[in-house]
């Protein structure tokens, strides 16, 4: 924290450990340091969520700031009965999904362009290499990417973001029963692929 | 999941319970019934083992996932930010809007170019190597700008008004009405709205600047200067 002006240090350090509810009420009051701290506290989580959805670390870096802008604008409508992280994730999931959709349209245009111009336009590298380290993980990762979006999303939120079913149901705006059943179906597919690997 | 402790589990029920227990703790009674079943049933035990293995693979991948971090902010940049934070946020919003606008223009231009290529090539010509996308007959004037727009799917909450939603995402409510083909401005909690975050393409014709620019060569450098 020494990069900040000395006058702000005490205030910042107290905020670093402050309750999210206090940070939020300070943010609503327009406290710039509180906004900075709120962004700092959640930016890594939001970034990882964005990476898992858009599958591109560069694009995810750009996506990460948008949920904060939308969230800071609508902080007044946040109700403390739900967890702030889940609320922020709801916005981030929506924004990341819309980026994914937009990119899929662009990719379709790119592939049309490639076939017309007969050139190979390089795609951005995925963060896969750093995640997959052996054959078993490759099988799970590939079959995870073969799942449709709603099944892939619950697995990502459950295992890569370590969220309980109740929060996933809040983020995706579906019932807990639906989350259970999607998780069950997704795990069945992944388990089948995994047992085929061991059967061979 | 309610299970009578006195009943015997079928294999199907036992498997559902094993799966369920991965996400939510079972109550003590159900747990003991399941454990009893698992001690006697090898098939269900191996099913539980496979799921455990799957979970450990996924969790192993999570640890590496956790090492992913957003690009670190440069301390100087951060210092600037802490001095001009409000301006910083305004800049981000402007930059995002600019990016969305550029993407929209790019997508529309690319789409128009594709369509013009499609119409240049006679339909009967054998052209198997190069697939030409067929233009959709359903494309409308508003629809043409829609793919380039960034939009948020928003589920209307109890107590929401259209004005409230529009100000929350800082868009004009007319755009929301137009984008969702709404008949009235009334919203209710059964509705799911697409909130457009794009800047609508002006419908008027593009103004060509009336004045022409003439470039007069500057020869001052060659002329001798006094002193």
Would you kindly provide a written description of the structure presented here, covering whatever features stand out?
The complex is a heterodimer of chains A (about 200) and B (about 230). Chain A is mainly α. Chain A has helices at about 5-15, 20-30, 30-55, 55-75, 85-115, 130, 135-145, 150-160, 165-170, 175-200. In chain A, helix 3 crosses helix 5 (about 85-115) and helix 8 (about 150-160) crosses helix 10 (about 175-200). In chain A, about 35% of the residues are buried. Residues about 1-15 of chain A have low confidence and may be disordered. In chain B, helix 1 (about 10-25) runs parallel beside helix 3 (about 40-65). The N and C termini of chain B lie far apart (about 100 Å). At the A-B interface, helix 3, helix 4, helix 5, helix 7 and helix 8 of A face helix 1, helix 3, helix 4, helix 5 and strand 1 of B.
How much strand content do the residues of chain A show?
Answer: under 5%
Largest sheet of chain A: none
* Quantity of strands of chain A, as a count: 0
The largest pleated sheet of chain B is described as: 2 strands, antiparallel
| Number of beta strands of chain B | 2
- Assembly annotation: heterodimer
Q: Calculate the mean pLDDT score of chain A and round it.
A: 79
């Amino acid at each position: 924290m020494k990069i900040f002006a000395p006058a702000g240090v005490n205030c910042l350090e107290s905020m670093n450990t402050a309750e999210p509810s206090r940070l939020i009420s300070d943010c609503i009051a327009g406290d710039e340091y509180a906004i900075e701290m709120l962004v700092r506290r959640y930016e890594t989580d939001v970034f990882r969520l964005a990476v898992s959805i858009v599958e591109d670390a560069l694009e995810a870096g750009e996506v990460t700031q948008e949920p904060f802008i939308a969230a800071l604008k609508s902080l007044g409508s946040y109700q403390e009965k739900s967890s702030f992280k889940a609320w922020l994730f709801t916005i981030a999931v929506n924004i990341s999904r819309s980026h994914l959709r937009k990119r899929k349209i662009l990719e379709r245009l790119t592939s049309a362009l490639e076939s017309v111009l007969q050139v190979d336009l390089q795609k951005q590298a995925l963060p896969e290499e750093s995640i997959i380290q052996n054959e078993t993980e490759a099988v799970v990762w590939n079959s995870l990417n073969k799942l449709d979006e709603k099944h892939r999303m619950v697995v990502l939120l459950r295992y890569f973001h370590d969220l309980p079913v109740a929060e996933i149901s809040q983020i995706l705006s579906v019932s807990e029963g639906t989350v259970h059943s999607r998780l069950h179906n997704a795990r069945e597919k992944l388990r089948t692929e995994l047992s085929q690997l061991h059967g061979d | 999941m309610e299970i009578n402790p006195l009943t015997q589990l079928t294999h199907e029920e036992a498997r559902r319970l094993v799966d369920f227990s991965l996400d939510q703790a079972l109550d003590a009674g159900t747990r003991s019934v399941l454990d009893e079943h698992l001690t006697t049933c090898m098939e269900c035990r191996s099913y539980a083992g496979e799921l455990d293995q799957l979970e450990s693979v996924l969790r192993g991948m999570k640890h590496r996932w956790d090492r992913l971090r957003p690009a670190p902010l440069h301390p100087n940049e951060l210092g600037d930010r802490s001095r001009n934070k409000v301006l910083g946020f305004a800049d981000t919003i402007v930059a995002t809007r600019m990016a969305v606008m550029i993407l929209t223009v790019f997508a529309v231009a690319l789409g128009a170019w594709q369509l013009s290529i499609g119409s240049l090539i006679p339909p009967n010509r054998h052209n198997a190597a190069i697939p030409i996308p067929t233009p959709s007959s359903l494309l409308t004037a508003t629809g043409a700008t829609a793919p380039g727009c960034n939009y948020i799917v928003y589920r209307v909450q109890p107590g929401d008004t259209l004005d409230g939603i529009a100000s929350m995402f800082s868009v004009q409510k007319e755009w929301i009405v137009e984008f969702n083909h709404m008949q009235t401005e009334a919203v209710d909690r059964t509705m799911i709205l697409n909130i457009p975050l794009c800047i609508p393409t002006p419908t008027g014709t593009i103004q060509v600047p009336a004045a022409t620019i003439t470039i007069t060569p500057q020869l001052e450098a060659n002329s001798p200067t006094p002193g």
